[in-house]
Amino acid sequence: MKKWWSLLALLLLAMMFSGQTTQQEQRPLFVPGEVVVRVSDPSLMAAMPSSKSVGPSDIFVVRDTTGKDVNTLVDELQSRPGVVYAEPNYLYYASEIPNDPQFSQLWGLNNTGQTGGTADADVDAPEAWDVQKGSSEVLVAVIDTGVDYKHPDLSANMWTNPGEDPWADPNDPRSGNGIDDDNNGYIDDWRGWDFVNRDNDPFDDNIHGTHVAGTIGAAGNNSVGVVGVNWNVRIMPLKFLSSSGSGSLSDAVEAITYAARFGAHVMNNSWGGGGRSQALEDAIKFANQQDALFVAAAGNNGTDNDATPNYPSNYEVENVLAVAAIDNKGNLALFGSGGGGGICGCVGNVLPTPGSNYGLTSVDLAAPGKDILSTTPNNSYQSLSGTSMATPHVSGIAALALAQFPGLTNLQLKQHLMNSVDIKSGLQGKMVTGGILNAFKAVSTTPAMAP
Question: In this structure, how many other beta carbons lie within 10 angstroms of the beta carbon of residue 71?
């Protein structure tokens, strides 16, 4: 074993110095020159100066600079003793399709037919607010492109790390005392973390994460802009997607692990792509162990996820809740063309993306996801479409339900949400519940599995 680990050390040390990889046709895109490895004993990685722990303690990312094909390296490593698995550092993408900000009304929360849709094809938010408006005790992690934490519609609901001292100007996350006060490995992470740039400023340099955050928890009754599903909530901004809307497997794993360790009740994941990753699945399992609900976008290909899986929404981990998108008539959303391609509407592409994915066994429920108005950076608002926009409706309703029923476990919460849908004939056979999540039902009906 020691002899083999010496050979592995030489191989992985060599992997630090190459910036090239060969991508086979129809293979998922991955970060050039990076491999994610899980080992049976984390101490075996001590000799790897290029390696970095990115999730649960036995998962590492290692850089390759030899020019050797990453897939070949993966195959070699997977066959060795001591390696549980090795895989490319896959890329994932934001799942929204941008369009012009034409719509000024939040039909997804309260549809009166104001945008030409069908009245009541919505989540019944006003009815829910008569029962529950949310709680600052509920923490939702937005794992995305970051969040404009200074936005006047979001600032009141942003999370701060109680274990860190911001020290100087509380509006400048680059200030701080320069000390890792809570000893979690992230210096001055008092308002989340930027896993792309490796700093404590998770500001959104795209628009995607801020839009998602606004749907979850734009402050209510503040005479400003829009309102989220929750008037009160705590939003943890975790930036793993870059300004172009893309992010790596290793950063996704690290962000999920970070959120889980801080006790996030709900994780919003409006992104997808890459291939099936054991490391990502392990991170989601870790989140499940920490009692977190993992809400994931079903994807924007207009295809059946039962036949063609979309990750992370297709992982068969019990805390995953997969979300499809509907339009303002209550039908499975069609997005047309513009701004998206691949399985999840990659920001910056111009390929046609036909509509929401579906799946009788792999997609759980639906929520509004077309022409959704929400917050965007620099005190602005915009309408976007995609399963990215449907997912935060569900994350927001999950937080609202937890505020009303704080004793629910993550799995009880998932089942309660699936029991709180309005069944639609056009959605039956397309997803597990065949319905649209209803916020009023989620807060007014006692959960069957409540303790």
Answer: 17
| CA gap 280, 255 in Å, rounded | 11
Q: Give, to the nearest 10 degrees, the angle between helix 249-261 and helix 278-289.
A: 10
Handedness of CA 132, 137, 143, 144 (dihedral sign): positive
For residue 14, is pLDDT > 60? no
Domains of the chain: 2-81 (no CATH), 97-444 (3.40.50.200)
d(CA 344, CA 421): 24
Residues catalogued as catalytic: 144, 208, 388
Give the least confident one: 104-118, 335-349, 362-376, 377-391: 335-349
> What is the distance between the alpha carbons of residues 352 and 338, in angstroms, rounded to a whole number?
6
pTM reported for the whole predicted model: 0.83
96-117: per-residue pLDDT in tens? 543 323 334 577 887 878 878 8
